[in-house]
């Protein structure tokens, strides 16, 4: 039995090293592991979110991908910011970091940097719970992960301050914002935040309004409020920006309609 288990994992490791080209979408042509969901390879993964991120980013900018999963949006960000920009991809889940790092390596994205860390309001190590489908969250769990704050990384100059942050941290949204207060006040990056409950959504919204951010909600939030937070897919998000640095009106309207 043990031999069969070892053989299974050896075969699986070999299969996930098989690369194919992404067929279409903003990551068309990038190398990607065959042993993943087909929406990645077809280029249809979270298409509305990816289109929005692509339109929010510009050459030379700094993109922080917080909750980078397998690296799909990190690759998108690298293509958009180009050789003069930077991408910082944070992924605490030990099951995901392999995919993230190899997808960056296979595509020779020297401007993209991966970190097996969570971002919250503390520095140190915390327990991390792993869920299915490559997700996880800070809380009682089976492993421990490194935790950092945005402000600490920026203040010690190990990371350039962000122009745009995509935040999908499975319940730690408020903690992350608390650990980013100085950065948000000083550099005013745009934010695209996935919220994972009505309470977290309202807490994030209130926190950002108190920092003089404009907070835009999509139409599907009404369905989420009426029918349950998990009744909409993907999870509800908010788009946040300094009123003096607003995205184009058409982009904001498109987000609202999503």
Question: What's this model, at a glance?
Answer:
The chain has about 260 residues and is α/β, with parallel strands linked by helices.
Q: What would you note in describing this structure?
A:
- It is built from eleven helices and 13 strands.
- It has helices spanning 2-16, 38-42, 47-56, 72-81, 94-106, 150-155, 173-178, 181-187, 198-210, 220-227, 249-257, and strands at 19-21, 31-33, 62-66, 86-90, 112-115, 117-119, 124-130, 136-138, 143-148, 164-167, 190-194, 214-216, 237-241.
- The protein is of the alpha/beta class and 258 residues long.
- 40% of the residues lie in helices and 22% in strands.
- The chain is globular, with a radius of gyration of 18 Å.
- 41% of the residues are buried.
- β3 (62-66), α4 and β4 (86-90) form a beta-alpha-beta unit.
- The protein starts with a helix and ends with a helix.
Fraction of helical residues: 25-40%
Low-pLDDT stretches:
none
Distance between the termini: 49 Å
| Lateral arrangement of strands in the main beta sheet | 5-4-3-10-11-13-12
Report strand %: 15-25%
Describe the sheet with the most strands: 7 strands, mixed
């Amino acid at each position: 039995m043990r031999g069969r288990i070892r053989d299974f994992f050896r075969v699986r490791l070999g299969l996930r090293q098989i690369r194919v080209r992404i067929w279409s979408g903003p990551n068309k042509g990038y190398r990607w592991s065959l042993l993943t969901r087909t929406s990645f390879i077809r280029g249809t993964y979270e298409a509305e979110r990816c289109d929005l991120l692509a339109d929010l980013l510009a050459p030379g900018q700094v993109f922080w991908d917080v909750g980078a999963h397998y690296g799909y949006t990190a690759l998108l960000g690298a293509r958009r910011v180009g050789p003069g920009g930077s991408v910082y991809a944070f992924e605490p889940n030990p099951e995901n970091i392999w995919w993230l790092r190899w997808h960056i390596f296979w595509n020779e994205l020297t401007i993209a940097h991966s970190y097996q860390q969570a971002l919250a309001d503390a520095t140190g190590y915390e327990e991390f719970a792993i869920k299915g489908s490559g997700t996880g969250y800070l809380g009682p769990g089976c492993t421990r992960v490194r935790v950092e704050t945005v402000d600490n990384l920026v203040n010690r100059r190990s990371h350039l301050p962000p122009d745009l942050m995509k935040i999908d941290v499975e319940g730690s949204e408020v903690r992350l914002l608390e650990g980013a207060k100085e950065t948000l006040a000083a550099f005013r990056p745009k934010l695209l935040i996935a919220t994972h409950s009505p309470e977290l959504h309202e807490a994030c919204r209130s926190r950002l309004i108190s920092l003089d951010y404009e907070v835009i909600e999509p139409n599907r939030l009404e369905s989420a409020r009426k029918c349950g937070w998990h009744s909409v897919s993907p999870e509800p998000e908010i788009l946040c920006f300094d009123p003096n640095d607003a995205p184009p009106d058409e982009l904001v309207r498109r987000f609202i309609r999503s």
